[in-house]
Amino acid sequence: MQVSRYLSLILLGMTLDSCSERQFDSKTEGEKLLARDAEWADLATAGKDVEKVVSYWSDDAVLIFPGQPVLEGKAAIRAYVAASFDTPGFKIHWVSQKPVFSPDGKLAYMRGTDELTLPGLNGGTMTLHLRGISVWRLDPDKQWRCVLDISNEAPPTNPSS
Length: 161
Known about the structure:
CATH topology: Nuclear Transport Factor 2, Chain: A
Distance between the termini: 87 Å
Order of helices and strands: HHHEEHEEEE
Helix content: 25-40%
Oligomer: single chain
Structural class: alpha+beta
Shape: globular
Radius of gyration: 22 Å
Largest sheet: 6 strands, mixed
Strand order of the largest sheet: 2-1-6-5-4-3
Number of helices: 4
CATH class: Alpha Beta
Low-confidence stretches: 16-20
CATH architecture: Roll
């Protein structure tokens, strides 16, 4: 009887524990999000796998980039990424930092810097230095996906007088 009582208490404790939400650990989750974002940046820099790069955005993602129309949803984003990868001289890389999380740990934003190389005038290339904000959501499959990606040109590093 005593063993049965202890076993019942252990099972009850395990059941209650499995029903409760875990405390959100922003340090650990921040490291995971930064690693995921860095992996994404490396894939985008390689410029080869459109589907893999697009998979880091949510289905309802919105992109707002300088001089471009607002892109909404994966179909528009996929077309943009495919066209970018097909553009001779195109290259992109970014580094994000300082993730900030919502209290429930299901949304986050990060700021970052980008280097974007594009075809320039007279057949050469030009490199834009951008800064941006990305908003991420933890989807039901426990995977972070970017839902909003906004960038603009960084100010000149040596402003002229």
